[in-house]
Amino acid sequence: MSRKTQALAALCAGLMIAATGCGGSGDSGGDDNTIIWWHNSNNDPGKGYYEQVAKDFEKANPGVDVKVQAFAHEDMLTKLDAAFQSGDPEQVPDVYMERGGGELADHVEAGLTKDLSEDAAEEIEMIGGSVAGWQVEGKTYALPFSIGVVGFWYNKDLFAKAGITAAPETMEDFYAAVDKLKAANIQPVSVGAKDGWPAAHYYYWTAVRECSQDVLTDAVKSLDFSDPCFEKAGEDVADIVAKKPFNNGFLSTGAQEGPTSASGLLATGKVAMELAGHWEPGVMQGITEDKKGLGDKTGWFAFPQIEGGQGDPAAQMGGGDAWAVSEGAPDASVDFVKHLLSTEVQTGFAENGMGLPTNPDATGALTDPALADLIKVRDSAPYVQLYFDTAFGQSVGGAMNDAIVNVFAGKGNAADIVTATQAAADKEK
Amino acid sequence: MTHDVTEPAPAAPGHATSGARRTEPVRRASGGPRGTGHRGDAWRKRLEILIFVTPALALIALFVAWPIVTAVRFSVYDWKGFGDLTDFVGLENYAEVLGDEVFRSAVGHNMVIVVGSILLQLPLGVAIALLLNRKMKGQGLLRTIIFVPYVLAEVIAAVVWLQLLQPQYGFIDAVTAQIGLTPPEQGWLGTPEYALWIVLLVLTWKYLGLAVLLFLAGMQGVSEELYEAAQLDGASWWQTQWRITVPLLGPTMRTWAFLSMIGSIQCFDMIWVLTQGGPADATATMATYLIDEGTKRHNYGIAGAASVILFVIAFAMALAYQVFVLRRDTKEDTV
């Protein structure tokens, strides 16, 4: 009996040594030449395009094996969280998507993400200022491959029907347009407040208009929201809500799913405009039966200027996705990420309408006219403020979004937004 | 918990009370040909118990006990979901959850659903069960119709109601508008003052079938002789139901109320699909609070503390109900 136990113990010990021996080389998800890549383009043409990109990379780098896994967006986020939580490097993909901001900072703090500052210095230089959202303490941890901006998408026909000749530029113009639309018996604006963030984007935007870039940059670092511009931004939102521009039942309207969602109402001509990101034409195409969305009727204008605001009038608010390499991934992963940012891959990315490329040489390849216009706006902006809920992290962002929805529901005021955000932020310090 | 599992295992009757009595029936049963047999038999019995109980215990340990222990562990740390548990904060998370107005209102909403479900479904369920218990044409069909909502998956039922309740374009708003009433501006689910009550109505629609089914089953257990005796005494139909059926349905009602209560405390799916706890947290329950804080905001410590509080509340209510309400039934049975 005891001899048997001893033998078993010896066997276990041997196995453990062997196991740690393997693990010691620090690879994840297979051997040194296998790159596991997770992305969220799970529909064609994006899915097929990325498969081709992986194959081309394998051909150019003999011996390297790229394993591509495409997920629906929400599934990918859930799986990524689970993989990181498991603490098991085998579960974590080598190349994955980072949305930047506080979420990335958490990953960096937990030692999950590789510092790319030196290995990808050229690409970082090429992308320019937009990379700031993916930097933590001066180091760059991911390379943004698509950055979009949030603005008002509108139905040109409905605007014309209401007698609106020019897209609104100031808040007064905006309110005038709302009144004209109402007079023409058209619901002016849809917002998916049920999902929280579509309503919260109004506050992010008023804050970008009210606060100077320095104040916003400081706030992301210090998590201090005492500057009066944050409360002023909340008052602006309360003013907009008080004008009642929104669709009936906006508090129980979802963002993007189905014809009664905020995007659906715009796509089917039930409302005249909606505040949304660069994804909106694609979402609307998915909702309408003819897969055309609003088609030629699609128009876009930037969030109206607010008089007396400290923000740069050309500043934009938006966000994007970046490729990151997990700590302990094979070295070839970094090369692969650099390849994904190359002019060649980004051009194909743009041609397939998969997003707004960050490689300046690829921006001309956008075929969708709405996106081609949008990228001009983005590239002429002095800076693109990252969505607050991403920039400040999920915990602070979640508290902020809830407080903003409360203002939409008439259950709170501008000061409550700042108080709730600061309270959540203080817990992070 | 372990009690429930081990209880059915000993086969011989009258055994569980004392150690001295326990060996007796065993010896009697085995007191046959083999002189030293009872020792081996006792061992065999224990082995048998072990073999039968182990799988269940292992599953409970893995899927009940371990998650509870893990939740308790998370609840005393400040943890974002990644890396090691290093930031020990003691009971701070608990203080924060209990001090959070959203959580307190969530507990309140849970209680509204607990009490509201019972107050709505009990009288309705009994009334419908009494009707369906009468012999009439189409009885089977009617029973099926009442029971269909319960068979539907909760999420599917919720999606159907979500479509019906769409503001402005939904069926219900269209009907209200047709009969000349103005539906609320924000829609039924978008108005904070109505949302919880609408959810409660949908829950009632969904779970009424279970109440009716259980009550009908309970009514089958009422002896036919009692009805005959009542008839001979000249009791009317109403009197028969009120004096015989309903009182004898007591144990069934109490068991049903227990199930309903547990379900209401854990209420999640329906609310998540209909309102996601909104608008402005007007329909948040403890379960939606957990998802919000944990999965969405990555405050796993807070979510852990909230889940422990949810567990304690559910456990205390279940225990109190067992002791003060269900005990009557078990006593009646044994006497």
From TrEMBL, chain A:
This is Extracellular solute-binding protein. The keyword Signal applies. The keyword Ion transport does not apply. Residues 1-18 form the signal peptide. Keywords: Signal. It comes from Nocardioides turkmenicus. PROSITE patterns: PROKAR_LIPOPROTEIN (PS51257). It comes from the Bacteria. InterPro entries: Bact_solute-bd_prot1, SBP. Pfam families: SBP_bac_1.
Automatic annotation (TrEMBL), chain B:
InterPro entries: ABC_transporter_permease, MetI-like, MetI-like_sf. It comes from the Bacteria. GO terms for biological process: transmembrane transport. GO terms for cellular component: plasma membrane. Pfam families: BPD_transp_1. The keyword Cell membrane applies. It is a multi-pass membrane protein. Residues 107-321 form the ABC transmembrane type-1 domain. Keywords: Cell membrane, Membrane, Transmembrane, Transmembrane helix, Transport. Gene3D superfamilies: MetI-like. The chain crosses the membrane at residues 49-69, 111-132, 144-164, 194-217, 300-321. It is found in: Cell membrane. Residues 1-39 are annotated as: Disordered. Belongs to the binding-protein-dependent transport system permease family. PANTHER family: ABC TRANSPORTER PERMEASE PROTEIN, INNER MEMBRANE ABC TRANSPORTER PERMEASE PROTEIN YCJO. This is Sugar ABC transporter permease.
